[in-house]
Amino acid sequence: MLERLGFAVTPLSSQINRDTEGRAVPAGAENRNVMLEQGYLEFLNPTVDTEVSRRMREQMARYRGAHLLAFGSPAAQEEHARLARHGFEPLPFVRLEREVEVEGGGMQLARFGVVRVPPEKMPEGRVQFVEHLTPECLWQPRYVAHPNGVMALAAAFIVAEEPMEVAARYARFAGILPAPAGNFVRLNMARGALLVARREDWKVLLGEAPQAPSLAGYALGCRDPIGFAAICAGESLEVRRNAGFAIVRLPKVLGGMWLLGTEADLARWPR
User: Which of 44, 50, 176, 208 has its CA 20 to 30 Å from the CA of residue 94?
Assistant: First the structure.
């Protein structure tokens, strides 16, 4: 499906964790990514039975849609210490790795430092910090240039019963400041933003949204949003227009909603 929508998708890859003695053990998940000039979309699938895969299945059983929100960091271990000081009780630091094929042939080891917290601390989904130790393995030119013109993960949509309280929690989690934006609360990051709102407000905009706490979907920055919307419609995806944007309902195998716009328009929205 992703290839038919005009994405260059990374090959399927299994994640490996390193235990405290440095031994490689399955993490319990495999993934494919859509790497963008700004950010990326990750599509995870649980595999062998591990704590990670059990939590993933529990989240997926709640609703079909978006479940992952990863904040980039150049110093994941420092984030781990900071989150502990702020009462988020982070889980043990995780060192993930997986083999990837690089241009020109051969395999290299992509390595990551990951900071996760207990689900009750960030109940909207799998909310974590990720430090990419080998970004050149993932942001390969062949995986970043998408024929559909999608360039950026511009925003993530958070569904909350009390948006101001939830936005304040994300502000402490990520070290960013919230600001009111119409019926939403916006938290701007170095790249992209978080938007927090009640379910009824997301349903007015997107047409549907899961029960809080959850993630409703993402905004994608596109060179030609109307052109990409036409590609989605051509693949029998439901496309609607609202607030000047194209909104795409994804099939059950992917789940969630995409709001399509130019990066400039999305940076000014909502007010």
Answer: 176
Model pTM score: 0.93
Q: Within 13 Å and on the Cβ side, how many CA atoms surround 47?
A: 13
Distance CA 62, CA 126 (A): 13
The token pair at 106 is 């051969």
The arithmetic mean of pLDDT across residues 252-258, rounded, is 88
- 123-177 per-position pLDDT tens digit: 999 999 999 999 999 999 999 999 999 999 999 999 999 999 999 999 999 999 9
Which strand (E) or helix (H) includes residue 258? strand 257-261
Give the pLDDT confidence of 237-253 residue by residue, as tens digits: 999 999 899 999 999 88
Q: Where does the chain have alpha helices with state H?
A: 51-62, 76-85, 141-144, 163-174, 199-206, 225-234, 263-267
Asked if residues 261 and 270 have their Cβ atoms less than 8 Å apart, the reply is no
Q: Cα 54 vs. chain centroid, distance in angstroms?
A: 19
Could you say which DSSP state residue 89 is in? -
Q: For residue 149, is it left (φ>0), alpha (ψ between -120 and 50) or beta?
A: left
DSSP states of 116-169: E--TTTSTTSEEEEEEES-GGGTS-HHHH--TT-EEEEEEEEEE-SSHHHHHHH
Record the tokens describing residue 264, joined without a space: 């400039």
Residues 6+ apart with CB under 8 A from 235: 1, 4, 5
Residue 38 CA to residue 150 CA, distance in Å, equals: 10
Alpha carbon distances (Å) from 266 to 85, 188, 192, 241, 261: 34, 12, 9, 15, 6
Asked if residue 225 has a cis previous peptide bond (ω within 30° of 0), the answer is: no
